[in-house]
Amino acid sequence: MKKQMLINAVHLEQKRMAIVEDGKLVEFNIQMAVREPITGNIYKGIVMKVERGLQAAFVNYGGRKDGFLPLRDVSANYFTEGAKSTLKPGQEILVQILREVSERKGALLTSYISLPGRYLVLLPNKESSGISRKIEDEEDRKRLKELVEQIKTEDDIGFIVRTAGMNRTKQELARDYQHLFRLWKEIRKRAAETAAPSLIYQESAFGVRSLRDYFTPDIEEILVDDPETFRQVRTYCKAVAPRNLKMIKLDKEKTPLFDKYQLEDQIRVIYQDRVDLKSGGYLIINPTEAMITIDVNSGRGSHKRNVEETAFQTNTEAAEEIARQLRLRDLGGLIVIDFIDMMDAKHNAEVEKAFKKALSLDRARIQLAHISKFGILELSRQKKQSTIQEISYTPCPFCRGRGVRPSLEYTALTAYRKTETQAVKKLFSMIRTDVPHEVADYLQNQKRAEINRLENDYDVIIHITGSPNMGWDESRIETIRRETAAPLEQADRSRKVSEETEGPAVAEEPETREAESPAPGELPRPGERGNNGRKRGAPGRGSQRRAAPRSVASMEKTSGEEPAGAEKPDEEEKEESDQAEPGENTHTPIEGQELLPKTAKKRPRRRSRRRRKPSGERSLEAAPASAQIPEAAPPAQPPPQEAVRIKPARPAVEPAATKINGSAVPAVPKARANGIPEDPLQRLQKVFEALDD
């Protein structure tokens, strides 16, 4: 049974290490140039913030995210006599990386520096020394403890003997201690001369780190295919373990080193979530943010005598393979294994025993629980660096690491709703939506009717274009605003208010006009004139003029009271008082003029208070206008705040006068100024009265 270490470092972008035992991959490690590991590096950082609630501090060490430093990991050098931390923002501190930066979390830091060697781990901030807990044999621990006491150490510096130093002599352990102590002195000197934040110490090269961490006494040969890496490994081995120098060899064959040992297929399985078992079953390994879940399935391995036997054999084989996959993939943190349910308690105990034996080869610290009644086994494994998948893979740009992506219909409807949201605003004349080609084809074929409806309802042009560089569920919308954005609701509201204002004005007109019409028997003579110097028989100018806006008329009524000596206008002139004079500042709307958004409140006309009397009485009561005193003007109202467009009334056309027996009888208008026809009987009565005169 030959065990070999293979180091493949030909390509600068990727370096790999594998340990093979009888052609089977036992250990594997990889390093990518684009993502070099920072675990174990020492930095001089600056404390940015101290959170007492979290009992931690955030330290800027020069990375893309501030590191997380728990206060329990602050060394005694930063404590006072009262055992209280003296960390303050802006303070400089020497820290080491325990866990690398993840996608959502920063690096985990500690101020307890540790320098690993081949056989020892130097602890500069601790005075005591010890032995690794993985060395469980009491005789070995007692012997190593005696050797540790014989090694002379400096003040405030301790060390721990690693499992690799279990069978080493005092001279080998002392040589490794002196090498690490010189390294620590160089680190302290550089830290004193360098400004924070900065890198003080970087972990060793890939080949040296592989030899230091993965080499065991049962390895018989070390093959390296890169000359530079070969020289680095030999130099390190000569310093710490000179007797192992002969087993390091340079591979000069043209055949790739890993192909010669048929490792590529075994490495490819490491990156898959499914691992097949020889019995026909399989494992499903699914890393998540909180934990790593492993599901054991029987698959085709159901050829045993009964279900219990099938479950036991599959779980036993799965336990050994799970321990191997944990080492190869370097999975750390909380791990939950779902074994096949077994009813026999003895079978559960045997599966646990086989699993513990397989985990004994692991270098990481592991805490193991028992199989529960639900067939669940929980364990915690020390996480030293990023997993193989995290080092080699990047998140998918389409699913962003979730493993699934939205369907075509879901993505297309999402883009359509975004376009619809912009269209209903009525602010844009054109909307352009950029989506992937498949989504664009779906919208143009399956949603053509809906897009046409949006264009017709909101008077907008919609363009759907496909882009090859967009993510699956991404969309980009570009809009062009309208040059004159006049909301339709504003015009509709103005039109409704105008119609409501015109309605009451027509309804109030008949009563006022009825009081202003001359009574029978009062027809003026051809040569007689009124108080205003106009012929009384001539038609008034106000009836031939367009109606002025109501707001202007109300302003004229509130202009003030007339003097006491002014003459009271007669009944015919009262009709002209409601019309605007040509010289007044009237704002008569022009045909086609744009409506204003708001309207003025119209003041209703004042009704005549005189009692209607028969025609004979009205003729006797007719008197000169000078004898009549005008009524007091109504109280002033505030100026109108709004203006209304009133459709101009057409000028009334007086019919020609009729001559009867040589006398000219003025024609009675067929309709009044407000457009309402007069009663025919009243009109006939006026004709007869004119004939009597």
Mean pLDDT: 76
Termini distance? 150 Å
The structure class reads alpha+beta
Tally of separate helices = 17
Shape: elongated
The fraction of residues in strands falls at: 15-25%
The total beta strand count reads: 26
Largest sheet: 6 strands, antiparallel
Low-pLDDT parts are 501-602, 607-611, 613-636, 640-666, 668-674
**Radius of gyration computed on alpha carbons:** 52 Å
Query: Portion of residues in helices?
Result: 25-40%
Question: Could you walk me through the main structural features you see in this protein, from its secondary elements to its overall organization?
Answer:
- The longest helix is centred in the C-terminal third of the chain and has 29 residues, at 488-516.
- The termini are far apart.
- Strands 4, 5, 6, 7, 8 and 13 form a 6-stranded antiparallel beta sheet that branches. A 6-stranded mixed beta sheet has the order 16-17-18-19-21-20, with helices on one face.
- The protein contains 17 helices and 26 strands.
- The protein has 693 residues and is of the alpha+beta class.
In short, what is this structure?
The chain is α+β, with helices and mostly antiparallel strands and 693 residues long.
